[in-house]
Amino acid sequence: MVAAVLAGLWTVGFTVVSQLTGWVTDQVLLASGLARVVWLWPVVGLATVLLVGGPALALARLPRSAAVRASGRAWLAAALALGVLGLLRAIPPVHHEAYLAALAATAASAALVVRRLAPRSAAPAADRPSGAGAADPADGGTLRRPAGKTARTPGPVTLFGMAGGLALLLPWVWVGALGGLLETLLAALAAAALGALAGSLLDSAFWARFTVGAPPRPARLVLVGGLVAGVALLLVAAGVGQSGAQLPLLLVLPPTAFALAALHATAVRRARPAGDADGPPADAARGGGDGTSAGAGWLVGLAVLGPLALTDPEEITLLLATARDVPYWVAVAAGVGLAVAVLLALGYGVLLARPGARPPSRRVAAVTAAALLVTAGVVAAGPGQPGLHGERLLVVLREQADLSGVPAGTPGRAGRDARAAEVYRRLVDTADRTQGDLRRELTRLRLRPTPYYLVNAIETDGGPAVRAWLSGRPEVARVLVSQRVRPVPAPAPTTGGDRPAPAEPVWNVRMIGADRVWSELGVTGSGVVVGSSDSGVDGRHPALAAGFRGGDDSWYDPWDGTRAPDDSGGHGTHTVGSAVGRDGIGVAPGAQWVGCVNLDRNLGSPAHYLDCLQFMLAPFPPGGDPLTDGRPARAPDVLTNSWGCPPIEGCDVGVLRPATAALAAAGILVVAAAGNTGPYCGSIADPPAPYPDVLTVGAVNRERAVTEFSSRGPAPGGAAKPDLLAPGAEVLSAMPGGGYATLDGTSMATPQVAGVVALMWSANPALVGDLTRTRDILRDTAAPAGESVRAGTTRPSCAGRDTTGAGIVDAYAAVRAARAG
């Protein structure tokens, strides 16, 4: 018994620590921009099999106590199941349907194996319940039914298991949202298979080893058997779902073991009519069986359905943990689920398993289950998030527009506008000519195609089958998953700032000499328009309101359809403030701005990134069609982009390459953040930062040294990146609501370079659209920067230009050179 207790504590401790460590490792790699370690979870599963399965195997074979041996067998089987299920996490999270299909098949196979290998011999006499005969639940694992009888209706034990599972599902119905139709169906199949696995592990034969004494003692069954079963369920929970989805189940599933023990105690009591301990089981005579396995299957299956079907594993991430987003609501659901599981254990234990308790009738159990089912439906349709919110597919076509030979035109804005119009015409013509057949076919299949022209592509509904069909079409180059953020019960509170407006230009503006440009050269950026694609912009902020260009084509929100500039996240307001904000926070306070929302709750998708980049090439009015209603003459001059599209959002390294090439051909300068995944070399990887026609910006601190977080080159293919540096640590700028705050990141550095370009083009309008000369001036006038040194070393982490680029942007020198040119 002491060995069993120690083995159980070791199993719980090792499993919890290894699962948390694996998830944290995944998150650190994601935040650092490093490649996902495919072998991580298979290794964790193998370690669990060896380090947990070894003691369990010893308990299953060596002790004399049948209860201890049953504990060892259950833990060994659960550890083996975890090892096999852990292998499935090698499937990339972006392919969730494939993972769920594999999970369903693997869990169902494991359930069949456990059921086939379960011991069928009768328990020792000392372990049999009082009055045990041929129908003893310890004999063969189930109460026997008379010949010719079959189970037609669920008994009260099964119904109470169903009711308990629905109670555990309620928190997820409230806070979660379903994915696509296929994804939901596969999640339901996987949950059913996992319920069958739990029912096979915790069948009547298992519980019979803890149902001892004359008469049987339900309290011992619930307490001791519940503890043993809880350890087994913890191991099963650790293997359920992609990395992150298993964490709430580690809290919720183990306490349900006590409720299952109480259900079995009820099954034993109902098995024999009062006063007839040696007679045939009452429920068995009616053809209902004892219901223990079925009750466990329903309770566990419905409990795991919540995190499997109603959350996206890619959204259970620290990247969204800064506000009340999916991680917060998953934690809420897990906390409520834990409370429900404890209440189930206490309630079932008191109402169903206490000595002298009267077995409940099938009618009471059925009414309870039906009431909870109706409640779940009401919650889903009311405070929940009804509907399907699955991912979409981005179909990239082979043929992209030929933009060679676009005439340069006259210098300045007139030439830029002519180039933009020609680029827009060629892009739209290519999309219309090459997409027609595919659009019609997708429309016929009711897959809701959305055409794009900046990259010749179509976004559409569809799962793995549609993806395979599209990939086989001759006009299709590749098919990517376009992420779709699932809704949450309540929007996150708006991120504001608690700092007042500065009394003088902020330190970063002074470092790059922008304040001298205003005072000595009389240039503030007037006549130039800066475009921002980000989380949005608070258009009412006193530092930004006057700079908004206005009109019906200066704001676009493809996520929520807002008609006026707005921002709840704060990131976009901060970056626009650093580019064009008044009150001493912006580099070009005289320039105007237009905005587009491409980040929703800090996540994006390749399609929505394209939505905003298209809007920047050819703005259109609300409700307009980008392919027919675009106005290239209204395009902004320079774009600030403090975002990147990593694989977790569905992008590959080349998906946005035609988009930035088209913008460059149109004479629109794209400025992009290098990323915050330093100090690793080669960490500038997420589009659009690696592209050669993008001006990529890293960050320095007050000491003019590259910050440790600033991403380094070389970019994929060996190109030297970043191009320039700008202040990116403790940068003060605007936040929603009228306040100010300091933030860190290459996101903060990027808009300052865009602001310098606005100053240059305002000083010399002939430079507008001349990207080559503008780049040359910026590089030639940049100031030297210091290379940061990693802690514990004496050398920079990466060499030369792959860390510092051309140096720190110098607004004063650049504007003087632009004016002289």
Structure description:
The strands form 4 sheets. This protein has a 7-stranded parallel β-sheet with strand order 8-9-7-10-11-12-13, with helices on both faces. A 4-stranded antiparallel β-sheet has the order 4-5-3-6, sandwiched between helices. The protein is elongated and about 95 Å long. The model is unreliable at 121-151, 273-289 and 791-795 (pLDDT under 50). The protein has helices at 2-32, 40-61, 66-87, 96-117, 156-175, 181-201, 204-208, 218-238, 246-271, 282-285, 292-309, 326-352, 362-381, 413-444, 464-471, 507-511, 514-521, 571-580, 606-617, 657-665, 746-763, 771-781, 801-804, 811-820; strands at 177-178, 385-388, 392-397, 450-452, 457-460, 476-482, 529-534, 555-556, 592-597, 638-641, 669-673, 694-700, 724-727, 731-734, 740-743. The chain folds into 3 domains: 2-119 and 154-388, no CATH class; 392-482, no CATH class; 523-789 and 796-804, Peptidase S8/S53 domain (Rossmann fold, 3-Layer(aba) Sandwich). The chain is α/β, with parallel strands linked by helices and 821 residues long.
